[in-house]
């Protein structure tokens, strides 16, 4: 069920409901409703979540979808993991990531 997959995703990436809400473009109350089984996320939210964590939409939608992610792979880190305790918005984190990509592009091979 989607609600279990969302719970597992949050646990896997150590996200709060607010963190996931910002990624999906919804409120934290919406994420709470998803996890409670009161409602299900719209496809747009699922696509944003899947894209952010490089998952297939089926990992979120299908029963036990998060269980099929290989557990022996290192846990992917988000840019937010490097700023634990700092209160950055999603837009600020995206700007930090863009800057990091810019710096990498300046490297000489």
Automatic annotation (TrEMBL):
One Pfam family hit: HTH_3
Keywords: DNA-binding
Membrane spanning residue stretches: none
HTH cro/C1-type domain residues: 6-60
Gene Ontology MF terms in the entry: DNA binding
The keyword DNA-binding appears for this protein: yes
Domain of life of the native organism: Bacteria
Protein's name in the database: DNA-binding XRE family transcriptional regulator
